[in-house]
Structures
1.
Amino acid sequence: MTPKGQIFRVALLQLRPTGTAEGNRQKGMEACRRARQMGADLALFPEMWSCGYQIPEDLCALQGMAISCGDDFVGSFGALAAELDMAIGITLLEAWQPLPRNTLCLFDRHGRQVLTYAKVHTCDFGEECRLTPGDDFYVAALDTACGDMQVGAMICYDREFPESARILMLKGAEILLVPNACPMEINRLSQLRGRAYENMVGIATCNYPKGQPDCNGHSSAFDGVAYLPDMEGSRDTCICEAGEEEGIWVAEFDLARLRDYRAREVHGNAFRRPWKYGLLTDEQIAPPFIRAENRKIR
């Protein structure tokens, strides 16, 4: 019998930006309050909420839009997290040298900043060539009403690389937070489903709604639990999928069931053979294929 357990609720804030940082701050704070009223333990924003995922071609304008993780915009969500007793994952165009970063700051329910993650796999084939990639993947302990849990983060295009979720799983992540800004169709949703299945992790993805350029909603959550002892065959691991419209959706992750599943199933790190995988990181044998013409800035 699967243990009944602690339910961890993630609110996916599928919001349309207002056009200004202050407008986004006010709208975001109101959405967090609504998410808490809906029972959320954590509220997650779409990618680069501080600027509504705007990346100007002019580098001076780009730097002018960037803010630090210590900016009042970010700090107001830390204070709100403590006020609401709810974790908040706020996203921003982060001031950095030589170019800004695409960043998530995670505050726990006490208002402490426990995780800062900058997108590693920037979309260098497009306007994100004007951003600085992050340098690693990180996992943090998050104090929740369900007890401590391990949380990691990817951002949008990171999803395309199995290594992102695999590294986070190896570092102990149980839930992955994925801010997003792109069309979420069957193949991208299938990638998230696959990352959750193969690593036995929960994945919560928050996208912008239809109406935001190149976005269509469909924020989603997969709990990563494909098989239950008392169930024949496999189950659908999708526990939440939003429509295209603006709104807030709450995904419920059963942590006790996930942990029991990870302790007995054969995926994740159970039967890996890492000594066979040297080619994956040997750039002399298999150099990364990055089209030179797309490296417009860096």
2.
Amino acid sequence: MTLRIISAQQIVYDGEVTAVTLPGTMGEFTVLRNHAALLATLTAGKVRYTEADGKEDHADITGGIADVDNNVISVCVY
């Protein structure tokens, strides 16, 4: 699945991942392949993800919106 983390200034990350954990306003949640479509607001925290090669990484955010649809996770951050 594809993860895209985008801010107004730059593309923070754009690549293939196997799992993404996001800091939702109603609690942290994880997205895996074939997750149901959803739209969620995000709070300050870490977007943690596992790349296709197994490497784990993260991006610090101050908030934003996540859209999950057809194995594409688009995260627009502040």
3.
Amino acid sequence: MTKKIDENQRNRMEYIVPCHFGLEAVLKREIMDLGYEIVSVEDGRVTFAGDAQAVCRANIFLRTAERVLIKVGSFHAETFEELFQGTKALPWEEYIPQDGKFWVAKAASVKSKLFSPSDIQSIMKKAMVERMKSAYHREWFDESGDAYPVRVFLRKDEVSVGLDTTGESLHKRGYRKLTAKAPIAENLAAALILLTPWKQDRILVDPFCGSGTIPIEAAMMAAHMAPGMNRSFTAEAWNHVADRKCWYRAADEAESLVDLQVETDIQGYDVDDDMVSIARANARLAGVEEMIHFQRRGVEQLSHPKKYGFIITNPPYGERLEERENLPRLYGTIGERYRMLDSWSMYLITSYENAEQAIGRKADKNRKIYNGMMKTYFYQFLGPRPARNRR
């Protein structure tokens, strides 16, 4: 049993949602579109307020998030004693039952006096046990029940503590069983698309589609298919936080929005036959196979008869030395083919510093995004908008 969360608390909890550095504004817009109030936006995460239903809807609907954490609390700590006491003061018994399995799954520290993840994790676990001993009047916990992973962020000695409701990162939609050498994460691919004005009635081509992630994410958006529809979440077992009805309601809402009959033109090309087969298999698992045309085609063959299309792509970065030598020619070819596509827009993410020079045109916009620890640039080459049809 837990010391039950009261109704007022269930009606307004705070949720911490981590994302890729540089994509906080995209995630913020997604959360607001779900109807929730933004509490704060910081580097790599957005905090919002919502009811118990929010934990279900955020996990199922957010495309650009990494996970959804219930904020247990925050405090200032410059010493391990302050970390211990601050953690012990948090109301763990309201969230974790006496048979719950609990641990600090990850600790991250930026510009803080406490910086050793393993020490932070160990001390917080001890403090949680002490709090639980007092709350449940027990000296020992067998931790045989449901999982309650904890994540902690320290920034400038301010500690934010959250319970991870998600489990496996939200970028794991469940459709990508096979991948390319350097696949782009699904939530990053979705964010890149959301940073463009692409809509389902416009052509989208990815000439370096690899395992198909960008075209598949675009097709899911076009079909209004929620990214978390076909996977499970850790918090589904936490009935005292959000009961099964909450999860069923969120799943039913997601199901009701899907429209697989939508007309769209999404294409993915790759020079490798195996990659094209993998992309098709992944699209089939995602349920959008009929919405995407994949084919074997090198970037030097990139062409399209229609106007006002979009290229959204993740070309090779040249992480290996032998590949790096080929980058000027490869990006030069991208530039040549793009210039032949009258009125198109092109959006590409890369860590290659000389991309604009090789393409032969300065990007209209350039956004810095961290892909894991790698600094990348999202170059945006804007074409003209199509003229509106006049009646």
4.
Amino acid sequence: MRNSDKILAMNIKLSLVSLMASISLCASAITVTSTPGNLGSVVGENIGETSLVVSGEMNAADFEFVAEKMTSLISLDLSGVSIVAYSGSPVLLGKTDYVANSIPAYALAGTKIESIMLPGSLTTIEEGAFSSSKIKSITIPSSVTTIGVGAFSNCDDLTSVTIPSTVSSLGSHAFVDCDKLATVELGVSIISASAFARCMSLNSVTALNLIEIGESAFSGCGALEEFAFASSLKTIGNSAFQASGLKTIDFSASESLDSIGAWAFAQCKSLTSAVMNDKTSKIGEGAFFDDASLVTFNMPLACTTAPNYIFKGNTSIDTANVLNHNITSIGDYALMDWKHVTTFTLPSSLAYIGSNAFEGWTSLSQLNAEGIVNEVPALGENVWNEVEQVNVTLNVAKDLANDFRAADQWKEFTINEVSSVEDILAEETTNRVRAYFVGYDLIVKADSEIAEVSIYDSSARQYAVETANGDEVVINTSDWDCHLYIVKVILADGSVATIKIAR
């Protein structure tokens, strides 16, 4: 046979194969009109079809037929169907009664169905209805108000979902372990417990009306690098974003946010910044535990407790605002393993430090406690474990110095007495000095030569000591998180001036 004849024969064969495939594809689709409980009768011998379009009415018995008999089904169009109530012999899970306008519990679980169009009158998708199915995409009608527990759990091929605002109840674990789910648009106000837990590909969540994010809602979502926290948000549950991929958190607009649960943002390895709202009053145990990359954090002013484990293992954190001056207690292991910190200031309201709270602070050289003026804070066990306390200067208020020297676990420090604000202001004063700010630069001028300028905050903590060889000193304050300063000026003739000034 000539080459040209061989090529012609091959082309004819390929055309026949293509034609047969087209005929087979056409034969794999079927359109039927059903009455309740009779879908099997109208489908008849066509149970091997891959595509089914149904109009008319269906009930739970018809869903059982689809799940058990039409095992090759890939596409199901129910947009023209009304789902009616069922009462009769046990079907599906052995139940005898099913309500109208509802996809029954586990009705299509584990099926090969990849795409489905749902009825416009549907109100409920019940528990596990599509769990472990091959669903790739789905549009949930605006008529739906309830999505049951685990309704789409373990749908490994589902890539995106839009949940309308009409859904008032989203069941726990609704989309848990959907490995390919990448995009979610939520109109709901409450995200239930573990709703999207371990959705490893989830990288985009749009949720504008949230009031509550439930326990473990996005835990283990490693690809979720950002999340826009709504201004309406009030509560974040335990472990809500634990081990997620979040890089930054910004609650500055979330003025209604009252509570952040235990371990909510723990083990977020990429988290570098958490901007808190000062109105948030409750932060749970271990909320930012082992966030090794976290640098920026500001403790809300409404918080009075740093709970157990909250910042344990945060080896990069900037200590400037991590505890506010209202903090009365630091919990067990709360600040453990901050090996990078050399200087730290304890809150002026502090009354208690929990067990092992400062364990592992091996670089600590100065601890400032001079703002504490009422009584020496009580301590748990092994608070300073691994700290070489004898090599650490503990600055304390003069009136409490002897109490610190007598207190267990405090007396091991090298204790230094610091003058109080009242002591500083009680120094001899003169009107020969003035001070003012130009931007962050503090300008100190006198009518004669200045010998020394000391800068303190309102807790009498010393920020700087500057010597001078003239009648003017310029001190840059941009690195200091302080607004009210006490400036003590010693002139060359020995006279002293003290000035309070706000930046």
